[in-house]
Amino acid sequence: PVDIGIWYTEEFRNHVFSEAGKKRGGGWVVETGAAQVQMWDGLFAGMFENIVYLEEAPGSGAAPAVDAVLIPHVAELQYAIPAHTNVKVYEIWMRYRMELVTPSGDPIAEWMMTAYGKTPTAFLRSDQAAVNLAAVVALRDAGANFATGFTKVPAVREWLEQRAIDAPEVKP
């Protein structure tokens, strides 16, 4: 039962990764920003009581009326493609840096979270489709990791426990 603010940085909302092809017409581009925002929006809506999307960074103006603000960042992205590995598999590893801050921007918790997606090329018509599918699988993995691990982050757990202590007792 938490009212949470969400701040997506410009870099996060527009995240892109690509591989320039060495052969004529080769290479691919995966624009993950919109897909990430869509995935995280759905996950957060299912996890928290109330969601407020912020238009500016926490601490840069009036503090929003929320309990805390979540800020996801893509900290690192690695990939393996058949051209690199000689195996007909596309893999994507994403490392997120997650921040939970007060409405005024003071840190509550920060943690790293990984996501992994893999797809064989056997059933796909193009390398671009294989890379996109691996990215989708990685995003699903990120959502599952966040949902199952959020309350296990020590600083998050402490913050939630303190909120429970500070909250007025609700009587039936």
List keywords for this structure.
two-stranded antiparallel sheet; 172 residues; 5-stranded mixed beta sheet; single chain; alpha/beta
Write the layout of secondary structure elements.
Blueprint: E1 3-6, H1 10-13, E2 16-20, E3 27-31, H2 33-47, E4 50-53, E5 68-80, H3 82-85, E6 89-101, E7 107-120, H4 127-149, H5 154-166
Parallel strand pairs: 1-4, 1-5
Antiparallel strand pairs: 2-3, 5-6, 6-7
Helix pairs in contact: 2-4
Question: How many H/I helices?
Answer: 5
Mean pLDDT: 84
Roughly what fraction of the amino acids lie in strands? 25-35%
* Spatial arrangement of strands, main beta sheet: 4-1-5-6-7
Main sheet?
5 strands, mixed
Structure description:
By secondary structure, the chain is α/β, with parallel strands linked by helices. It has helices spanning 10-13, 33-47, 82-85, 127-149, 154-166, and strands at residues 3-6, 16-20, 27-31, 50-53, 68-80, 89-101, 107-120. Strands 4-1-5-6-7 form a five-stranded mixed sheet. It has a two-stranded antiparallel sheet with strand order 2-3. The chain is elongated and about 60 Å long.
Short description:
This protein is of the alpha/beta class and 172 residues long.
